[in-house]
Automatic annotation (TrEMBL):
Family annotation (Gene3D superfamilies): 1.10.3730.20
Origin species: Pararhodobacter marinus
Entry's transmembrane regions: 27-47, 59-78
Gene Ontology process terms (BP): xenobiotic detoxification by transmembrane export across the plasma membrane
Keyword Coiled coil: no
Main location: membrane
Subcellular localization(s) per the UniProt record: Cell membrane
Protein name: Guanidinium exporter
GO cellular component: plasma membrane
UniProt xrefs under PANTHER family: GUANIDINIUM EXPORTER, SMR FAMILY PROTON-DEPENDENT DRUG EFFLUX TRANSPORTER SUGE
Family: Belongs to the drug/metabolite transporter (DMT) superfamily. Small multidrug resistance (SMR) (TC 2.A.7.1) family. Gdx/SugE subfamily.
UniProt-listed InterPro entries: EmrE-like, Small_drug/metabolite_transptr, Small_multidrug_res
UniProt GO MF annotations: transmembrane transporter activity
Keywords: Cell membrane, Membrane, Transmembrane, Transmembrane helix, Transport
Length: 104
């Protein structure tokens, strides 16, 4: 169950990072509210998951899901650049997360 909560926390990190961009520096109300609620929910679920999971792998998986997911969301929603270097970086993040998870 802790890994599921951690995955949800990572997905919420994608939400808050993406809406933070849309909040335009916290000047647009709805994305700003979604960002703050997303941050609180994401960190809360991370904290609950870390009660049973090791800190290093938990944090790495959480940030990895958020980083790769936000990268993908940026490409899809904001037209950010998609090139071989960025894809390679995302693949390396996923590889690192996988290795860390295999060791727990």
């Amino acid at each position: 169950m802790s890994w599921i909560l951690l995955a949800i926390a990572g997905l919420l990190e994608i939400v808050w990072a993406t809406t933070m961009k849309a909040s335009n520096g916290f000047t647009v109300l709805v994305p700003s509210i979604v960002t703050v609620v997303g941050i609180v929910a994401s960190l809360s679920l991370l904290a609950v998951a870390m009660k049973e999971l090791p800190a290093g792998p938990s944090y790495m998986v959480w940030t990895g899901i958020g980083a790769v997911g936000t990268f993908i969301a940026g490409v899809i929603l904001h037209g950010e650049a998609l090139n071989a270097t960025r894809i390679a970086a995302a693949v390396l993040i996923v590889a690192g997360m996988t290795l860390m998870k295999l060791d727990t």
